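Consider the following input, taken from an annotated entry for Porin (Candidatus Avibacteroides avistercoris).
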Amino acid sequence: MKVKVLLMTLCLAAAAATGASASSPTLSHDDREQATEEKKDKKRDWKSRFTIGGYGEAVFSRNFYSENWKRYSDASLYKDDRGHNRFDLPHVVIMLGYDFGKGWSMGAEIEFEHGGTESAVEIEEEETGEYEQEIERGGEVALEQFWIQKSFNEALNLRLGHMVVPVGLTNSSHLPTQFFGVYRPEGDNTIIPCTWHETGVGLWGRTKDWRYEVMLIAGLDADRFSNKNWIQGGAGSPYEFKIGNSVAGAARIDNYSVKGLRLGLSAYYGNSAANSLKPDKFEDLKGSVGIGAFDFEYDDHGVIARGSFLYGHLSNSGEISEANRSLKGYGISPGTNIGSDAISAGIEAGYDIFSPITKLKDRDQKLYVFFRYDFYDPMWRMGTNRRGQQLLDEEQWGRQRFAAGINYFPMKEIVIKAEYSYRKFKPQFNDEPSFSLGVAYAGFFTK
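Applying the prediction step yields:
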């Protein structure tokens, strides 16, 4: 009996081994290669979903004018100043993106301005020349963008998170390869935030020759407005959060009907007085900010021309100026007069002298000779205070700027810039000429 059981056990074990061998045959050489290639494809698919890139600028400037804080209040004393040199890293940005699939994606940008963490010691030009600790935003680095996007089709994309507000030419085209000057265009970069980024929700898309964006975002903070920079400081926050008692709307539309030409309109509207940690100082005030802008870009036949016009209005500017002066002691506000209306206009044009040379054109090398003109004034119009008195216009902040130079592109992603500029003031102030050199890159490091 024991022998029979043993024989049956051996037979069953042999049958099981035979069945296992039949169901799991040894892979052939070709099958192994195919399996390896499938694994590689999965890895390549993961890599193709991930993107990393960025942009950065390094600049040297020779300024042929005084940097003394009293150069506007006592201009005659500094007319023959020897000038000064400056080295700078205006912007260094790391861009990250990932495509999750099924229309979901993520984008992020981490920005370092002037080689630091947005905390600086500055000399107050319009006050007493004291050193002042300036905190532009809470935290150690600036998170310029962080959003999650759901794409339904080319014409409809939903974006949630921290995004660039595309008002004006510079905010929509702020990479260093998208403007000729060594620094960003001075007008928009002075009176509105650049790059302007806020947290909210947005829709964007493109259909045929039209592209649009609409956003609902956190409103500006009135106690950060100033004489020199109008509403620019209101986009930042010295706290670990952004006050959002008032929300705002922004929109942009671009048209590409003409070959090589883009025409754009953009706008912003929102109240700002309620977005303060001391809202009682702004009682019964709205501080409505309205901005409208037009811009264009032409790029064809070796010519690039860009231009923009921006106008903004701030309601209750006189009352807000008085309220901000009461906040200066808290270290919250600059405490200066603020214009009720601000204006910025600029135009630049350049010609690629390499464009007729076939060999250089085929290598994607370009050498643009350009000219640029800017006019801007953050105190274009002044409001009145609660007593009906008109606020003083500080004329040193209204300026014209002329610039000429070259942009050399050894390849699409890299540009070397040289520029001579002349900042012109009203006769009672000293003009400010300067020469600047810069090198910059912008692009993606993954394909």
